[in-house]
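Morning!

This is the sequence you dropped in the shared folder:
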Amino acid sequence: MAQVVQIIPIPAFKDNYIWLIHNNHYAIVVDPGDAAVVNNTLTKLNLTLQTILITHHHQDHIGGVDLLLETHPEAKVFAPKNESYAFAHQPVGEPDTIDLGNWMNTSRVIDVPGHTLGHVAYYIKQNQQEWLFCGDTLFGAGCGRLFEGTPTQMMQSLEKLTALPENTLVFCTREYTLHNINFALTLEPNNQALINRHQQTTDLINLGKPTLPSTIKLELATNPFLRSDSVEIQSSLQLNKPTQLETFSKTRLLRNSY
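The structure's back. Tokens below.
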């Protein structure tokens, strides 16, 4: 019999989510920027931390690792091989697969440079479900800023992620969805799927609930960074027969100051 596996968001800082995967006994955490909130959750649920997955080197994603390793010294840490980390870890990158223990299937590592040059994502098929933990590469109706990479790299990374099955659940690390949707509506105000998502997202926030996870299908229908072929977006950007890269680049530039 397949074990029941749950995924819960642990809010951290202003708008981060640390995703915790567990089977009521063991736990995996993704990008634990804050050890205190993770340890509180582990204690509350009586879980043993087994694995830590890191997508990139920014402090709000790794700041809790050292303390977690002090309190859970048996935990294994996986982090991008093209970035440097002071804590003990196993470097990973595409096309590696990771053993997550006998209660979980393996995870495939996907290189997604753009936000940082070494950024990775983790893709897991579990009990007929498909999960993507994508750090700050893909957001609900948005994508990460280009702190280190180029628009071309980010576009190619997003294309990798959107080639995954459309029912894949997308576990982003930021509660940016509503702000991203508001921006998207300035570019594509007649997109009915986007209008519907705005209402659904507003309802969730009013109920105090996370707007995530999303799905690849929903992102393809509503995320302007995945819709650079949209005539309405190109028109809103006042571009004449642009390439998709030109559309993407201008969209990212406008979002930086929105």
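Headline: The chain has a mean pLDDT of 97.

More detail when I'm at my desk.
O.
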